[in-house]
Amino acid sequence: MGVSILALVYIIAAVTFIMGLKMMSHPASARQGNIVAGAGMLAAIFGTIFLYRNDDGSLLGNKLWIFGGIIIGTIIGVMAAKRVKMTAMPEMVSLFNGLGGASATLISVIEFNHLADQGFPADKSGAGIMAILFSGIILGNITFSGSMIAWGKLSGKVKDFSFNGQHIVNIILLVVSIGLSIYISSHLQATTTTILFYVVFLLSLLYGIFFVMPIGGADMPVVISLLNSLSGLSAACGGFLYDNKVVFTGGILVGAAGTILTVLMCKAMNRSLTNVLIGSFGGGGAAAAAAGEKGQHKEISLNDAAVVMSYANKVMIVPGYGLAVAQAQHACHELEKLLESKGVQVKYAIHPVAGRMPGHMNVLLAEADVSYDNLLEMETANEEFPSTDVVLILGANDVVNPAAKSNPASPIYGMPILDVEQAKMVIVNKRSMKPGYAGIENELFYSPKTSMLFGDAKKVLQDLITEIKTL
Amino acid sequence: MEGSYMQSFFQWISTNEQIIYVLILIIFLGFIVISRVPAVLHTPLMSHANAISGVVIIGAIIVMGRADANNYIALVLGLLAVILGTVNVVGGFVVTDRMLEMFKKKK
Q1: Where in chain A do CATH 3.40.50.1220 domains reside?
Q2: Which residue has the higher pLDDT, A42 or B1?
Q3: pLDDT tens across A222-281, in order?
């Protein structure tokens, strides 16, 4: 009876996972979808603890250990999730993802030890089990070490690192890991198998590190999404191993969804996945753009900027990566309120990939209490630019680069952008004249309409606020 | 030799026929379910999918529950697997909820 109830619980859980993902595709239903899938997960976890039966019909033992682990994990998980700053969201997701990968790896390690103690099955089914075990180990380890590096890089703890021929080393690492796994699976011998098993273990860990190390900060979301898809697949291996359909279904679902999400993200940034992974982005295009006329840029003083903005009818703020890094969303909202109290209409133009991750900017501004009505999506914003007096660009670069429309040689050519040049005046806040992550020059900065206001976004905004108050 | 490998391959296919069907259908389902998500929701979606991939916690629980009560290596590794899996699941869902709460607040 218990077993059939558990089967039902698993089926329901699998359905909630699918529904949860489906509901995530609309802002209105997304939060509910998250709760639905969470409830399904909860049911599956407790169903397993109390109803699961081993092959010999016995219930699961060690319940104290299990509950101890769940309680500790819940406390850590909730604390981390509640405390993390909204700007630090990308690294948090990456960290959680890595832990899931580690969990999948540990399961395979325990199962391997179990098999090694019992003596490996001699028939062909042994090879099948080993193949799944190794897939679980390799995928889990890449997810773990890769996500840890991604986490370290995003939180500034790990610096970019690459060496000549790294791609070749990476490919060799991966090929050797897979080759060894196949060899071990088809030649099971108690003595060498265990040693080789841990060789594969180490090699796949190393691969994860080298794979993520050279990838640039702004491409991290794509990599995290990819690693997320791998962690789904590693979970699916666990599901296959124990013939557990809900783990299998959930894992494959995330694997497939993560893959398509990775592709979608690349599309939104107008990049190909190969480009992100091999990191050759901008090579040719940067040269082409750099060869063009650079011209002169002009600067604007804080005081002038304050005057221009205070006496404008309509100001459009274009927030970007720089605002997210400087954590300037609250200062930004303060400026907005101040200008509005002076009768200036203030709106935000949000590019779909503005921020550190797609959709990140909306979350950040929402956190700073910016009203939803003031956030304009790209299409609407583009209609409003011609009637805008001042555009204030805060740490955005590639999303306002006219080269995306005018220069077919540019690597971002074809990416939809915000047409800020339609406005009467553009003020660009940047830390320096250095190009954005795409490594390409931005003609906008040399346009006669544009004035540069250098400095950290948060500092500049605070100074602007002070200036406007003293006007 | 070659023949026996082919044979075992076909045998593997027929023993796992059902799960292969399930695999294919879920892959397509995953693609279809996700393919129309607006870019605005990519971040929470990623976090949500990440929480679901923590379903591996069920595997960890089973491993843990089966471990011999005297096998401390298995128990400790299993405990670690359960803790890490739980952090992934709980943290993932809570953090996604926090992000989506902000979307909702905007109306």
Answers
A1: 292-470
A2: A42
A3: 888 999 999 999 999 989 888 888 999 999 999 999 999 888 888 777 677 777 776 543
Q: Is the pLDDT of residue A61 over 80?
A: yes
Active site residue A160: no
Nearest to A48 among B35, B37, B58 (CB): B58
Among B28, B58, B66, pick the best mutation site for testing chain A contact (most A Cβ within 10 A). Answer: B58
Residue with tokens 């609407």: A380
Active-site hit among A373, A398, A456, A463:
A398
Query: What is the pLDDT at residue A347?
Result: 92
Closest partner residue to A260 (CB to CB) among B31, B91, B104 is B31
Q: Do B46 and A353 touch (CB under 8 A)?
A: no
And the tokens for B73?
């290596």
Side-chain-side CA neighbours of residue A151 (13 Å): 17
Q: Token pair for residue A81? A: 């999730």
Q: How confident is the model at residue A283 (pLDDT cuts 50, 70, 90)?
A: very low
Nearest in space to B61 (alpha carbons), one of A233, A107, A56: A107
Q: Which pLDDT value is given to residue A435? A: 65
Residue-wise pLDDT for B68-94, tens only, equals 888 888 899 999 999 999 999 999 999
Encoding tokens for residue A280?
Answer: 């050759």
For A299-321, the DSSP string reads B--HHHHHHHHHT-SEEEEEE-H
Q: Which residues of A touch B72 (CB under 8 A)?
A: none
Q: What is the pLDDT of residue A266?
A: 82
What are the residue boundaries of the structural domains of chain B, listed by start? 2-103
Average pLDDT over residues A303-325: 89
What does the block give as tokens for A131? 């193949």
Which residues on A lie below 8 Å from B33 (Cβ)?
18, 21-22, 25, 257
| CA–CA dist A235, B104 (Å, integer) | 31
pLDDT at A190: 65
Whole-number Å distance between alpha carbons of A395 and B53: 34
| Chain B residue numbers touching A24 (CB-CB < 8 A) | 37, 41, 44-45, 48
Q: Which pLDDT score is estimated for A299?
A: 87
For A292-470, the fitting CATH number among 3.40.50.1470, 1.10.287.3510, 3.40.50.1220, 3.40.50.300 is 3.40.50.1220
